[in-house]
Amino acid sequence: MTSPRFDANLTTERPTFVTHLDCAYTGERYEADTVHNLSRAGKPLLVRYDLDGVRRALTKEALAGRPQDLWRYRELLPVRRVEDIVSLGEAVTPLVPLPKLAAKLGASELLVKDEGRLPTGSFKARGLVMAVSMAKEFGITHMAMPTNGNAGAALAAYASRAGIRTTVFCPADTPEVNVSEIELQGATVYRVNGLIDDCGKIVGEGKAKVGWFDVSTLKEPYRIEGKKTMGLELAEQLGWELPDVIFYPTGGGTGLIGMWKAFAELEAIGFIGSKRPRMVAVQAAGCAPMVRAWEAGEEHAPRWEDAHTIASGIRVPQAVGDFLILRAVRESGGFAIAVEDAAIQAALDEAAREEGFLLCPEGAATYAAYKQALADGRVGRHERAVLFNCATGLKYPLPPVHRTLDRHQPIDWEGF
Ligand SMILES: *Cc1c(COP(=O)(O)O)cnc(C)c1O
User: Fold this and answer.
1) Does any ligand 1 atom lie closer than 6 A to the CB of residue 150?
2) Which of these, 1, 6, 288, 366, is most buried using a 10 Å CB contact count?
């Protein structure tokens, strides 16, 4: 078989199968191919496909012959026409084993899905490449969002590429590199003296006053379709056999909800069986609304006051998709777990020093949670666990190094 052109997924018209959308809370049906935000009930909308049609159109063999990027799953994605795809090269991200750390813990297999390889350095690219491609399809001209940094950067990049104007609001203490990359990639970014949900309120008001399109987490239906590809990739990379347990750093929860949706779709098209991983929602102890709600057996998670953590990507006090996160965690037999900032920092240092893997703080939180869960017996040593490293560790402030060497002085060779 000859290999396909590198850009075959971006240039080949393929059939698409979206039938409608429905409200994730009430099940009310909404028509496809028109602009949506939340449902009338104020809840997220989920995109639905003719999965029998996909089953007939797509085989594992056909998939295996396509280039290794996100767009290889086109039949399970919402974009209708290739001309609307706004791509910056969304590579399939590798599963990297951490054998030394696993051996130290007496565990058989520990894998990290390294999302830091994506355009703009985080998995927010998956969601935003889809949302912006759909916005292009709909002719949207101005998008706005609240962000803790990475989502804003991905939105700015893709929207500029598509010729769409963007306005972005982030908390004042958002990592410096995020604020800079957002502006540099063509958005207008404002630091706001508040948290991400305070920024979200400004976007919501501006929607009415300025007419911009609100692309907040789960307030439009397509970011989740992009994030879903993490689940599709994971299944395919593991030979259509899902792992035993997935540790996901949970903010708005798009990725966790998206993967859970992906697994259901893969089963419906006959690519996997009914085995599911246990989904573990990892949060920081200083902002753990899902953990509190999970422990209390609640369906919704009220706002977490005074949220603080070094893992800025998961500093989300309140999530509109709370019930979907909690539902997926419960249906999967998983759990929600909080880790202290000190444990996150220690996990980050350990993985960097011993495995040469620079996790982002949110990714480090999943490793800290994994160790905690191994210790308390919620995860077994024989189980195959996948951690999500959601961004490159290079995006975050790194510790300074003060060691110097004066080349004009005698060198103490014994000292090295
Ligand atoms: C956004 C983000 C998260 C949280 O992802 P959700 O799917 O919104 O819960 C975790 N880590 C990083 C680095 C992020 O940017």
Assistant:
1) yes
2) 366
Partnered with residue 151 across adjacent β-strands are: none
Q: Do domains 95-121+223-395 and 124-214 have the same CATH topology?
A: yes
Confidence tier at 1 by pLDDT (50, 70, 90)? low
Q: How far is ligand 1, taken at its centre, from the CA of residue 48, in Å?
A: 24
Kindly state if the Cβ of 251 falls inside 6 Å of ligand 1.
Answer: yes
Closest-lying ligand 1 atom to the alpha carbon of residue 257: 7
| pTM as predicted | 0.97
Residue 103, both tokens:
């051996």
Residue for token pair 């929207």? 159
Quote the CA–CA distance of 306 and 303 in Å, as a whole number.
10
Residue of 150, 216, 257 to test ligand 1 pocket, by largest number of atoms within 8 Å of CB: 150
Fold entry, domain 95-121+223-395: Rossmann fold (3.40.50)
Tens digit of each residue's pLDDT (9 = 90 or more) over 289-345: 999 999 999 999 999 999 999 999 999 999 999 999 999 999 999 999 999 999 999
In which element (H, E) is residue 279 found? strand 278-284
